[in-house]
Amino acid sequence: MKIWWLDPFHGGSHAAVASGYAAHSAHQVRLITMNQAGGWRWRMRGGAITLARQVAALAEIPDVIVTTDMLDLAVFRALTDRTLGLVPAAIYFHENQLTYPLPPGRKRDYTFAWINFTSALVADAVIFNSDFHRRDWLTALPAMLRRYHDYHELQTVDQIAAKSLVLPPGLDLPPLPSRRPRDPSAPPVILWNARWEYDKQPHVVMAALEYLAARGVTFRLIVTGEHIDPTAPDLVAARQRWADWTIHWGFAESRAAYLNLLQQADIVVSAAIQEYFGIAILEAIACGCVPLLPARLNYPDLIPPEWHADCLYPTDDDLPAALERLIADLPRLMQYNWSALALPYRWQNLAPRYDATLAALVR
Q1: How far apart, in whole angstroms, are the C-alpha atoms of residue 298 and residue 282?
Q2: Verdict on whether the full-model pTM lies above 0.90
Q3: Which domains does the chain have, with CATH numbers?
């Protein structure tokens, strides 16, 4: 097959999924992309026009089109109907603008949530990166439709649900060297590899570290994730506070350096209020880290039920004590084969599922 993957916001996890699938698919995958420089709002408003112009210059017709939730697929299909009207199109939801949690004081702009809705409506398949994401969005959709005066068209929710499916993002990991046996006398190494932003709740993680320090629990720290604003006062203060405890702080200089940091860590922690899948957590698990995660979002689906009691905590207030317990229990937990949890998500195993899904859509 000839597959076009349209990505109007090509960067981060969006780019990783598109590039990973293109590299591992058995078919010809052409990436047609725009960078993130214009911001996600402008990409959702204007990306369809730009990408329609770009594909008009291509001397081929694909067998199937895949795009992401950042594209106004209804506008794109209208602009390309004469040439691509018979080509099936799938939309891949990395996130959505209906249930994405907002920072304090900001009101939701339903313009973008509506673009997600109409794009799903005209798509031939609606692909979510997790079943949690699928359930979350479809459950919230009727309330958005009822916001308006009349003609709520609630039957469209079932229509979209009927063509919805789940394909997790793949992990593009090289063969990893075996971890060195952990020195039981060494302090545990705690990893936080999320963005420093409100939806990942760095203040909750930092408060848990303060709890450990006050209790006399020794540890080392690795903080590696995107810092949207490196001069943010809370980030600068935290970096100074934990300087003597820190092995590394900041975005890794390369993919290899990032994976090396993950293999040095013992525990990966999250306090996120937004996580439709959890690529960073799964990467850490693949490198042998023991996860400690909130019992919400997609996290319960990433961890086998028999390990929930060890790895999931109920509320933000429970994180400090849960982290102290996990550290005390680390010798037992490190005996589990954590990296095996990530095997099904490697591209070598997932790409054939993507291929089969898109081939069925063509048929």
Answers
A1: 11
A2: yes
A3: 2-170+347-362 (3.40.50.2000), 189-344 (3.40.50.2000)
